Amino acid sequence: MLCIKSCHHQRIALRTTITAKQHTTAAAACKRAFTSFSSSIACPSLKTPVRLRPLHYTTARVPCHYFSSTSSKMAPPPASAHEFLDFVNASPPPTTQSKPPPPSSKSRLPPHLRTHPWTPSTISPGGKYYLTRNASSLIAFAVGSRWSPGNPIAMIGAHTDSPCLRVKPVSKRTANGYLQVGVETYGGGIWHSWFDRDLSVAGRVLVRVKEGGFEQRLVRVEKPIVRIPSLAIHLHRQSNFDPNKEEEMVPIAGLVEEVLNKKGDVEEGEEEEFEPLKAIDERHHSEFLKLIAKEAGVDKVEDIQDFELILYDTQKAVLGGMNEEFIYSGRLDNLDMTFCAVKALIGSVKDGKGLEEETGIRLVACFDHEEIGSLSAHGADSNLLPAVLRRLSVLPGVDGNQQSESNETAFEQTLAKSFLISADMAHAVHPNYAGKYERNHQPQMNKGTVIKINANQRYATNSPGIVLVKECARRKGVPLQLFVVKNDSPCGSTIGPMLSAKLGVRTLDLGNPQLAMHSIREMGGSWDVEHAIGLFEGFLEGYGGLEGGLVVD
């Protein structure tokens, strides 16, 4: 059974204008694509049931034409590229947060389903729903109006996390008159790219509330507050730069004051309340905590019980290149694919008729912790997706009748008929390092999403999957590319092989091409956002009709 718990309920507003202090991730989408809907935060350690509820949407797509029809000049970037910029700029950590919707939008919010744990009886054919776990993993799905138990599910899987620096549980450090914040590395980042950047912090804070309980608050300090300066070249003549991650990557946050974090004297006869851990202001600098308390909306630093904060680059994602053909941004891997997948799911049912003849389910799953192996309660190697699929497989059909005999094997039938696209960014050819790429497989930006293939199953792609995805792309008029690594080069992996083995579901790995993967500042193609959205829409809309025509036992 899938038991999802949350630390509090709060509204989430995704609307046509997003203020600078709204923070969203995969559980949301970009500001121009969606209107308001409700959300709740999931946290396995606390006792409040998670909400499972319908999606609400409005969206529009533009044709996928990279070049103008009248000349060879590149066409302006599509609207989806600008929407992606808004999305990624509002999404430093892999957690979900937003302000409550304005009064004018509340009337558009769908009804909430609050059963715990949710059961198949709470889901109806033709409905649209989503759930979160740990506020950092999301599963959203739309049920076809002609659904029957055991029918196929068209799935797109992505991940919400990126390599970053995370504030340590005891971060207070001082050295040579400087205040420093201790951090630990998360994932496999290009760590030298974090030097000399204007950094700040974002994440979630657990605070004590007046009612006596605890509440999660999501925060983002928007101004730069820390920096990791490089050592001057005069003091470091070596050609290589490989900093020690423990001693040489400690951010500077300020200058030491005359008195640091001095606690008030305890009055005579008064005893300090016992705390199992050191007080929060003994573990972190007081000025740092004051900033966090302000962003969390609490009056006293003592109300902060704990937090999970990451560092992020305050420089905004932008369009670049002489014709704005590029996106310069952090976290392209993998918010690019997360955004495109969620946008495509909503776009696939935007006209209100997309589910009328649908016999299957259209599903998007966005997981946390991919960059560190996915082995967590909310990673792709958890029970999250299998448990959801098991429940969905036995949903009552449109007539409400269920055969208990067929339900016994509905889960296995659904898995045998379903298909998963594992969407994770791919490598574009680098003009300065072209020798690092296989000579016949050198993807280029803005030339289409890349199908990733590996004979050693580091990617789960096979020929039947390529045929299926190629047909979806043909129907939508979007280009595709192919990629394999050189035989003398290591190959990364994705959630694709992991989920394919766990579920026995046919799977294909793909992603948009990019440069500088895992750098603090990455580079991708502005038109590839539109290409991926079109491809994913074609897959979600067309898989039900294609599934029966491509059987390989």
TrEMBL record:
Residue spans of biased composition, Pro residues class: 91-104
Pfam families for this protein: Peptidase_M18
EC number: 3.4.11.21
Protein name: aspartyl aminopeptidase
Xref: CDD domains: M18_DAP
UniProt source species: Podospora pseudoanserina
Signal peptide feature range: none
Alphabetic keyword roster: Aminopeptidase, Hydrolase, Metal-binding, Metalloprotease, Protease, Zinc
Enzyme class: hydrolase
Required cofactor names: Zn(2+)
Keyword Cytoplasm belongs to the record: no
Family: Belongs to the peptidase M18 family.
